[in-house]
Design a protein that fits this description.
Length: 285
């Protein structure tokens, strides 16, 4: 069944904005820029098709939004505007926007050949997932700590089966789409299923060396962390208290507290959770 073609979208009101704090001037994080643009048409009918073919898609219903990766660039689209990045400059950003429009226009013309994916992304807060974990930091999942695994699972970058101590579900649901004659999603039907005993799979993934990654990430900070501060941050990410850090590193609690304050100041955060999230995102621990 052939679907009616959408108007070919274009863009307007293009602009670039620069970010990077708390990273130093001249670092990759500081120099890269995000492109913002307005679309000349409503592209939301394409969201299920983007969700079906793009890399790392995340489709949201409220607000209507899809995030995905195209040619290694992160994109976020609303029905009539979007954002993409990061770019080194204006020419690179404009070149990518031409590529993005070609991608969208290709989907317009191939919609009747593609199977749309209406699966929504329903993010679960990292700390809620962390409560389900054994908190032993056994690393059998391939991540350096239970908190790191929870952050990855919250972003749908891993699966519960990777953790040997993850609690078994007490219920599961299957959501089925209901379409009209034109193939558009009208509604969904949700069925409760009996959860089968989970098959625990061996975590064979090899995690990258956290120390080498931390050295690279630290080099980009406007005020790099000292070696001792990196050690404290690594333990902080693993959920250690000041007392536990004191015992592990054989330093006083007063010294630990001073290191934690310095870490917060250098990372531009206010608490341990924010510090842990930033550290994991930028390979600092």
């Amino acid at each position: 069944m052939s679907l009616p073609l959408m108007p070919v979208p274009g863009y307007a009101d293009f602009s670039l904005r620069k970010g990077g704090a708390p990273f130093r001037t001249g670092s990759p994080f500081d120099t890269q820029m995000l492109a913002q643009f307005r679309l000349t048409g409503d592209v939301s009918p394409l969201f299920p098709y983007i969700n079906a073919v793009a890399d790392s898609p995340s489709l949201l219903e409220k607000p209507r939004f899809i995030r995905f990766v195209l040619d290694g660039v992160c994109c976020g689209l609303y029905p009539d505007h979007g954002i993409a990045g990061a770019f080194a400059g204006r020419d690179q950003a404009l070149g990518f926007l031409d590529r993005l429009l070609a991608f969208l226009n290709d989907l317009c013309h191939r919609r009747d050949e593609l199977q749309p994916n209406y699966k929504r992304w329903n993010p679960v807060p990292m700390l809620d997932i962390f409560r389900l974990l054994p908190r032993t930091n056994c690393r059998r999942c391939g991540y350096p700590s239970c908190l790191a695994f929870a952050a990855a699972l919250s972003r749908q970058r891993t699966a519960p089966e990777r953790c040997p101590g993850f609690l078994a579900p007490i219920a599961t649901q299957a959501v089925y789409p209901v379409h009209d004659k034109s193939g558009n999603l009208v509604t969904t039907v949700t069925l409760e299923l009996d959860p089968a005993p989970p098959e625990r799979k061996a975590a064979a993934a090899i995690a990258p060396s956290p120390r080498k990654a931390a050295v690279r990430g630290n080099a980009y900070l406007a005020a790099p962390l000292t070696g001792r501060e990196l050690e404290v941050l690594r333990l902080l990410v693993q959920g250690a208290t000041n007392g536990e850090i004191s015992s592990s590193l054989k330093i006083s609690r007063h010294t630990v507290k001073s290191h934690v304050i310095n870490i917060f100041n250098k990372l531009g955060v206010n608490d341990r959770t924010q510090a842990a999230v930033l550290a994991l995102r930028h390979d600092l621990a």
